[in-house]
């Protein structure tokens, strides 16, 4: 909104600052952070009153988690509110990439909310059926993929190689939807400890803020040998909104958590990162930057596959963060070490921009 007002004013005086994506990204981060910190306490109290016993805790999970009984869930709504309000204030409302990513964020957030609501009301951790969830996710992701692909080509660009790509043609729509849905569920699987998913999401968003900004600049993209995507720079502002909302949520989610993100937040944020990666043509780099989420998902797939084949477990418990808990690592130790891994992977992802 402010961008359109500043443009109408001819970017005169102080309005000239709004012209720059870097300024609006910083302003968006701070706006989302402030909104999240302001609404947080009352929002958490409201959730606690309405949910009563809070999120159901799995009886077959680590016994240390039983002390978390009564902690409210759906805290992802705090992130979505601060994210959406800050974006409406600072983004260029005519940019289709931002609307596509926002559609995924809100759409996945609604699906996650319905899942959380089902868990809370039925007092069971199962939630919606997997088929219903996946159907809803692919519908939302398919719509977003259609919007995004109308603005970009259908090539998948390879990291470490300048100008090398794989043309997928119409199959790219399916590929884009799979990336969005897959990453949404990957973050969802990771969200099992206080703060475990939140900080890696913030780190990944910060990394893609840089990538989106560079991809949206003809000079930088040409110099680095990465694909140029007109308008993608506006996604840096979207990433900043994720960071601001995530940091505000982490204030209340830090151990011991006063609120859980729930599927409402984890699905929404994971889907958003997937959509941003598709729009910026850095889908494969997302696998590097978000390698922690990929590893968490892989651990579940490996565990289920191997158990069905042999009746034995590869890990003591999946996802893999529970494996380390069962080995005796304190929850805070697992969380902080996984944060460190996320930082290393983010640096590796950024390195692909230059190593070509």
- Report the C-alpha radius of gyration, rounded: 20 Å
Count of DSSP-assigned helices: 14
pLDDT < 50 stretches: none
H/E series:
HHHHHEEHHHHHHHHH
Indicate how many domains the architecture comprises: 1
Number-wise, the strands total: 2
Percent range for β-strand residues: under 5%
Describe the structure.
It is built from 14 helices and two strands, in the order αααααββααααααααα. The chain is an all-alpha fold and 356 residues long. It has one domain. The chain has a two-stranded antiparallel ribbon with strand order 1-2. A hairpin with a 7-residue loop joins strand 1 and strand 2. Helix 3 runs antiparallel to helix 9, helix 4 packs antiparallel against helix 5 and helix 11 runs antiparallel to helix 14. It is globular. The model has no long low-confidence stretch (mean pLDDT 91).
Keywords:
356 residues, mainly alpha, two-stranded antiparallel sheet, globular
Q: Topology, please?
A:
Blueprint: H1 2-8, H2 21-51, H3 76-90, H4 96-122, H5 130-149, E1 155-157, E2 165-167, H6 171-190, H7 198-215, H8 218-224, H9 235-253, H10 262-279, H11 283-289, H12 291-310, H13 320-326, H14 331-351
Antiparallel strand pairs: 1-2
